[in-house]
C-alpha cells in the first residue's frame, strides 16, 4: 500500500486508529475455544466489527508464534482475510525483526511477499545493513523502533551518545539509509512529552504509537506535537479494544471501544483544521 492510500483512508474514516490483534487463548470468550481455529474466529469477528473505525490492524507475531504451527496458520488466515476483504486497510506485522543483511532479506520476504503485510516492525540495533533489505521493497513500510512505550526504553534509548540521546541518533541516522522514504517509526504513547523533539527530526514521517489503553498513554497528549498535515500518526490499542468483553458480545464491545477512540480522533482532527 502507498502512503497516499493510507492517508486517504485516514481522511475518509476520520480515524488513525490501529487495532492490535494480540490474541491470547486465556483471554478470549470460552465458547470460541470449541471452534476449529479459535484465534482466527476471534480475529475475524473483531475485524468485521471494528473495521469502520480503524485504518490499520497490527497482529503482534508473538501471540501467534506462542501457539506453534497452529498459531502461524491463524496469522496467515488473518492477513489473508484482511487483504481479501479490506484491502484498503493498512496491515502491520509487529515482529520486531532485524539481523545481518542476508537474514533480514529472508525476514522481509516472509512478511512482505509470502504473508503479504504492508509493513513490519524492526529493531535498529544492528544498523543500516540489517534494515535496508526491508526498505528495498516498493510500497512496503519498515517501522523502526525509536522510543518504545515500556519502562526499559530508559535503559538505552534515552541515554546520551555524545551530545544527543540514542533515539535521536537512530532517527537521524536512519534518514540517510537507501529508500528511507519507506521508513515509519515506533514511539510509545507513554512518551508523549518527547514528540515535539521527535517531530523536529522527522517532521513528516508516519509514527506508529502503541501504549494508549492498557498502558495508560494519552491520545490528546500524543496528538499535541505528533500530528502532521497528513496526520502522520497510527495510534494502536490492543487489549483495550479486543478484550472489552469476554462474553458473546465481545465483538460489539470491541466496536464500541474502537468507535469511542475514533470519535475522539475525529474531534482532534476537526480541532486542528
Ligand atoms: O514500544 C512498543 C512497541 C510495541 N508495542 C506493542 O504494541 C501492543 C500494545 O498492546 P496494548 O495491549 O495496547 O498495550 C503490543 O503488541 C506491544 O507488544 C508496545 O506496546 N510498545
Describe the structure concisely.
By secondary structure, the protein is of the alpha/beta class.
Any overview of this molecule?
Helices cover 45% and strands 16% of the residues. With 273 residues, the protein is α/β, with parallel strands linked by helices. It has one domain (3-271): TIM Barrel (Alpha-Beta Barrel), CATH 3.20.20. α10 (219-226) links the parallel β9 and β10. α2 (38-50) runs parallel beside α4. The protein is globular, with a radius of gyration of 18 Å. The two termini are 26 Å apart. 48% of the residues are buried. The mean pLDDT is 97. Bound molecules: the ligand O=c1ccn([C@@H]2O[C@H](COP(=O)(O)O)[C@@H](O)[C@H]2O)c(=O)[nH]1. The ligand O=c1ccn([C@@H]2O[C@H](COP(=O)(O)O)[C@@H](O)[C@H]2O)c(=O)[nH]1 binds at residues 20, 22, 60, 94, 148-149, 186, 188, 210-211, 213-215, 236-240.
Q: Characterize the main sheet.
A: 8 strands, parallel, barrel
CATH architecture grouping:
Alpha-Beta Barrel
Radius of gyration: 18 Å
Inertia-based shape: globular
Helix segment tally: 12
CATH topology, which one? TIM Barrel
SSE topology string: HEHEHHEHEHEHEEHEHEHEHH
- With strands numbered from the N-terminus, the spatial order across the biggest sheet is 1-2-3-4-5-8-9-10
Number of strands: 10
- Beta-strand content bin: 15-25%
Q: Roughly how much helix do the residues carry, as a percent range?
A: 40-55%
The kinds of small molecule bound in this structure are: ligand LLZGTKA7
Mean pLDDT: 97
Q: Provide the CATH superfamily.
A: Aldolase class I
Q: State the end-to-end CA separation.
A: 26 Å
CATH class: Alpha Beta
Structural class: alpha/beta
GO molecular function: orotidine-5'-phosphate decarboxylase activity
Enzyme class: lyase
Pathway: Pyrimidine metabolism; UMP biosynthesis via de novo pathway; UMP from orotate: step 2/2
InterPro entries: Aldolase_TIM (IPR013785), OMPdecase_type-2 (IPR011995), OMPdeCOase_dom (IPR001754), RibuloseP-bd_barrel (IPR011060)
Amino acid at each position: 500500500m502507498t502512503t497516499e492510500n493510507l492517508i486517504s483512508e485516514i481522511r475518509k474514516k476520520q480515524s488513525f486508529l490501529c487495532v492490535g490483534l494480540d490474541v491470547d487463548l486465556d483471554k478470549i470468550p470460552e465458547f470460541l475455544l470449541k471452534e476449529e481455529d479459535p484465534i482466527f474466529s476471534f480475529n475475524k469477528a473483531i475485524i468485521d466489527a471494528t473495521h469502520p473505525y480503524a485504518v490499520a490492524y497490527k497482529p503482534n507475531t508473538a501471540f501467534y508464534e506462542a501457539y506453534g504451527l497452529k498459531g502461524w496458520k491463524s496469522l496467515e488466515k488473518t492477513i489473508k482475510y484482511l487483504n481479501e476483504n479490506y484491502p484498503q486497510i493498512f496491515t502491520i506485522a509487529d515482529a520486531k525483526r532485524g539481523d545481518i543483511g542476508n537474514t533480514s532479506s529472508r525476514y522481509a520476504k516472509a512478511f512482505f511477499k509470502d504473508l503479504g503485510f504492508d509493513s513490519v516492525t524492526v529493531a535498529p540495533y544492528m544498523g543500516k545493513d540489517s534494515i535496508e533489505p526491508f526498505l528495498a521493497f516498493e510500497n512496503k513500510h519498515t517501522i523502526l523502533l525509536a522510543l518504545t512505550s515500556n519502562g526499559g526504553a530508559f535503559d538505552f534509548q534515552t541515554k546520551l551518545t555524545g551530545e544527543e540521546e540514542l533515539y535521536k541518533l537512530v532517527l537521524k541516522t536512519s534518514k540517510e539509509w537507501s529508500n528511507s522514504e519507506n521508513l515509519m517509526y515506533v514511539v510509545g504513547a507513554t512518551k508523549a512529552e518527547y514528540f515535539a523533539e521527535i517531530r523536529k527530526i522527522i517532521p513528516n514521517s508516519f509514527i506508529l504509537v502503541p501504549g494508549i489503553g492498557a498502558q495508560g498513554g494519552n491520545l490528546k497528549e500524543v496528538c499535541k506535537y505528533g500530528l502532521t498535515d497528513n496526520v502522520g500518526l497510527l495510534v494502536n490499542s490492543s487489549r483495550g479494544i479486543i478484550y472489552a468483553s469476554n462474553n458473546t458480545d465481545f465483538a460489539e464491545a470491541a466496536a464500541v471501544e474502537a468507535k469511542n477512540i475514533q470519535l475522539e480522533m475525529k474531534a482532534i482532527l476537526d480541532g486542528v483544521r
